[in-house]
Amino acid sequence: MDDAAGVGFGPEGIGAPPEADGSAHALFELAPEEDSGSDTLGRYRYQAEVAARDCLAMLTQEAIDFVVCEWHEDFVVARTDGSVELVSVKHREGTQGPWTLTELCKSGGLTHLFDRWCACECADNVHLRLATNAALKPGKGNAGVLARMCGPEPELTTGLTAMAEAVARQMLKVRWKQPYPNVPKTPECRIADIRIPAGFVDKVVRFLAVLEISCKPPQRENITDVNIQRLLVPAVKQLQLAHVDLEATYRGIVERIERANRDESDRTQLAVYIADPGRVRHSTQMQQRVGRRRITREILRQEIAYTTVQLPTFPRGKAPVVAPGGTKLHRKLRRGLVPSDEAAFAERLRSAWYTTWSERRSGLAGDETDLLNLSTDILEIVFECRRHARAQVPEGSEFGNKMNDLLAERLRVDTLPSLPPFQLNNQHLRGLAYQLCDDCLFFFSETFNADEEAS
User: Fold this and answer.
1) For the stretch 389-415, what's the b/e string if a residue is b when 16 or more beta carbons lie within 10 angstroms of its beta carbon?
2) Which of 10, 31, 127, 286 could hold 85 in an S-S bridge, CB 3.0 to 4.6 Å?
3) 339 near 356, Cβ under 8 Å?
4) Are strands 126-132 and 84-90 parallel, antiparallel or unpaired?
């Protein structure tokens, strides 16, 4: 019996968006059938580089939520609409020639994908992809024709039933030697004499309707260069990042995927996680395991490496923009006895941050979260500077000038708890701090009503 038997996925189906209680995609509540691949992933860098293609797309495509490595198939792409895509990567040496239909079912991963799809209860929001670097053998009844019959809008529909029957027979033959619980066991005989169980061909037809057979991944010897030039370079340009070390960034992303693939925790088979209809109770062990294999946008951005070139405070080639507002910041700096020339410099840095944020924000929904995280890190340092400033001046004295000195000393990119969403210099951080002050999130003195104080 497959380890997925009896698993309840609820009315939403597998991969439905998280519930209000924080439930994850239900696909990830189901333990994979096998996990032995994690032990030998060091030899499969190609698989990690194919997964990197979807991860790099995630940098600029809001439709991709996250990627989970070595989960059910080689990796799973979770989308923001609640759907998931199980991806199987098959590398084939050029000397082996193109895939035939027989080989695709036996060693090309097709039967394994079918078995996992069945374990996911053939849910409507589970899609499948077989990604290979090799060609598909053309000709009637062969792999090339099969690929044209796959997907919700197939290029070719004539002969679909006959093709599904041929695939069904090949899968039933594979089942004689390999234990796929969701493929029926039939007596061994000539393939033409196999008695196909009732309803099995119809199930294969449904399987083909959610399957994509892709020959897009490049060959192993040039996949690195192709991924950098066709995927990473456009992403860096769209995100308006400057001074990115492309090779170091790509290497860091692939190595991060490989670490997710290895999952250096207990690799023994986990017990089946049976979710209740509301998905209220969760297996902590299962969720931790998924978390170790998850690749998110934030993780990818942390892997972006920059050259040592100093980033200019104002973007070159752009007219400086004066940030709106500033009245409350001016009043607070004055109340804190910050000298007028330093207050004017603070206003310039606030405009530098405003210009940089306007130029470099991605335009995706995650911008607000990125800004919130960065602002939180900065406020933590701001309040630490304020505490030290208070302690260094006589009781009852204004501490704003000392606090401003400490900000210039301690608010640096290398002191942040987490990396910023794009490359910034120390002056940009101070500019954002001054903007947060103008937003009344902190003061350079004891609090007062900055709206009512006369200029």
Assistant:
1) beeeeeeeebbbbbbbebbbeebeeee
2) 127
3) no
4) parallel
| Mean pLDDT, all residues of the chain | 84
d(CA 332, CA 177): 77
H/E segment holding residue 390: helix 367-392
List the structure tokens of 360. 């470099």
Half-sphere exposure of 154 (CA within 13 A, CB side): 21
Rounded to whole angstroms, the Cα distance separating 277 from 285 reads 20
309 has a pLDDT exceeding 90 = no
Hey, which residues does 131 pair with through a beta bridge?
89, 214
Return the residue matching tokens 């790099």: 56
Please say if the pLDDT value at position 39 is more than 50.
Answer: no
d(CA 390, CA 443): 12
Q: Give me the residue label for tokens 């400033």.
A: 389
Nearest to 417 by CA among 365, 446, 380, 392: 380
| 184-229 confidence digits (pLDDT tens) | 999 999 999 999 999 999 999 999 999 999 999 999 889 999 999 9
Task: Please state the separation of Cα 201 from the chain's center in Å.
Answer: 36
Q: Minimal CA–CA distance to 216: which of 227, 200, 207?
A: 227
The pair of structure tokens assigned to 446 is 């004891």
Q: pLDDT tens for residues 49-84?
A: 999 999 999 999 999 999 998 767 789 999 999 899
CB 407 within 8 A of CB 430: yes
Residue 334, burial from CB neighbour count under 10 angstroms (0-12, 13-18, 19+): middle
**According to the model, what pLDDT value does residue 290 have?**
76
Secondary structure tally for the chain: helices H, strands E: 16, 6
Dihedral of CA atoms 332, 334, 339, 341 in degrees, nearest 10, equals: 80
Cα(349)–Cα(343) distance, integer angstroms? 10
Per residue in 334-345, pLDDT (tens digit) is 999 999 999 999
φ, ψ for residue 358 (rounded to 5)? -65, -35
Which tokens sit at 237? 């340009």
Sorted by sequence, the CB contacts under 8 Å of residue 430 that are 6+ apart come out as 346, 349, 407, 408, 411
What is 255-301 written as a DSSP string? HHHHHHHH--S--SPPPPP---TT--S--HHHHHHHHHHEE-HHHHH
DSSP 54-108: HHHHHTT-TTEEEEEEEESEEEEEEETTS-EEEEEEE---GGG-SBPHHHHHHTS
Q: Which residues pair with 73 in a beta bridge?
A: 71
- Give the number of other Cβ atoms within 10 Å of residue 254's Cβ: 20
